[in-house]
Design a protein that fits this description.
The chain is mainly alpha-helical and about 80 residues long. The chain is about 55% helix and about 5% strand. The chain binds FE2/S2 (inorganic) cluster (FES).
Length: about 80
C-alpha cells in the first residue's frame, strides 16, 4: 500500500514550472540537498526559472516552498 494519500501524490506531481514542466517533487527533492538553500540553487539544480517567462510564474511558488522548509527546520532545531 502506498504511504501517501491521493492528495499528497497530486501535490507532489503538481507542475510548478509550467515552462519547463517541472513538478513539485523535483523542488522538494532538491531542497534535501545540502547545497540547495536559495531560489537560485533550486533553479540551478532543477532547471526551474529558465523557461520563457524567466521564472515569473514559478519563482513565487519556489519562494513559498523555501519559506515552509526554513520554518520546519527552525521548529526542529
Ligand atoms: S514557469 Fe518556470 S520559467 Fe516559466
Amino acid at each position: 500500500m502506498c504511504p501517501l494519500s491521493i492528495k499528497e501524490i497530486k501535490e507532489r506531481r503538481r507542475i510548478v514550472c509550467i515552462c519547463r514542466a517541472i513538478p513539485m517533487f523535483r523542488i522538494r527533492d532538491a531542497l534535501r540537498l545540502p547545497d540547495c538553500r536559495t531560489v537560485e540553487d533550486v533553479n540551478r539544480i532543477t532547471g526551474c526559472g529558465r523557461g520563457d517567462c524567466g521564472g515569473k510564474r514559478c519563482r513565487p511558488v519556489i519562494e513559498e516552498v523555501l519559506q515552509e522548509a526554513s520554518q520546519s527546520i527552525d521548529l526542529t532545531s
